[in-house]
Amino acid sequence: MGEPLRQPLEPRTPYPVTTKRKLSSEIWKHRKEYLAISPFYLLFAVFGLFPILFSMYLSFQRWDGIGVMSFNGVNNYRFMLTDPEFWKAVGNTLLIWIYSTIPMLFSALVVAFLLNASFVKFRTFFRIGYFLPNVTSLVAVSIVFSTVFSNNYGLLNYILTLFGLDPVEWLNHTWGIQLAVSFMVIWRWVGYNAVIYLAGLQSIPTVLYEAAKIDGASGIQSFFRITLPNLRPIILFTVITSTIGGMQIFTEPQVLVGNDGGVNGGGLTIVLYLYREAFINNYFGYGSAVGWGMFVLIALFSLFNWKMVQGKGTM
């Protein structure tokens, strides 16, 4: 028998040259649509992408903001890693995050459950009321809290004296400054996270609770078996966003105790340290290095929180 007839394979050809022309013609055809969305990309390139890239370049330079730049290598990063003030700022930021974020998210979850309860009336009014602090000026809030925690004529000290207790110099102690900043963060962000949790609660199908009630499940069992598993993605979202926001605290301590972080630097956060070094001491190269160091810390800390929440969810 002879060999079977085989059809010759057609040689593979690369994409025709006309593809690029076709792409260009399609872009030109929809030029009005591209022109309509171009302002966003232009603004992002000028005010977003360029500062990011320039700060990376600047972190390897020595520059006072006016004179000529000089290449500094990795000395800015080396000094940052050996500077006790930087690590003090990192420690203060982490402590303020612990003092504020955990109570804030727990309080937001409780508020969301109350707002979602059927026995609560005027729920829309309460939702607006709880969200209102989030749109209030941070400077105004810091000024108000500075009077609340004032050493001499503060509201807290007045309440303590009513109960026969001695007044406390809140802003003369490291823990007092961190407590005041934490209360500001809690007051500002409880309503915001409560609204997010409320949206998550309302997205859970009620048939799940009805089926659990028919099976004899208690309210606590329904909470741990239905509510928490369905809220896990939202809780993860709030934890990550709260971590990013908590590591970037600046206005509260800056208005409350000044650029140096108050007594013993108790309110010196990472961003406040960056601001002091770059815009007060005019070390713009070192300030850029601190900014990128903060970026790495936020990424690592967010990854840790994500792993922790995900790990708890898989148990």
TrEMBL record:
What keywords appear on the UniProt entry?
Cell membrane, Membrane, Transmembrane, Transmembrane helix, Transport
What PROSITE patterns does its record include? ABC_TM1
| Superkingdom | Bacteria
Q: Which locations, inside or outside the cell, does it occupy?
A: Cell membrane
Q: Where is the ABC transmembrane type-1 domain?
A: 90-305
Q: Which residues cross the membrane?
A: 40-60, 94-116, 128-150, 170-190, 231-250, 283-306
Membrane topology for this entry? Answer: Multi-pass membrane protein
Q: Which family does it belong to?
A: Belongs to the binding-protein-dependent transport system permease family.
| PANTHER family, per database record | ABC TRANSPORTER PERMEASE PROTEIN, INNER MEMBRANE ABC TRANSPORTER PERMEASE PROTEIN YCJO
Q: What is this protein called?
A: Sugar ABC transporter permease
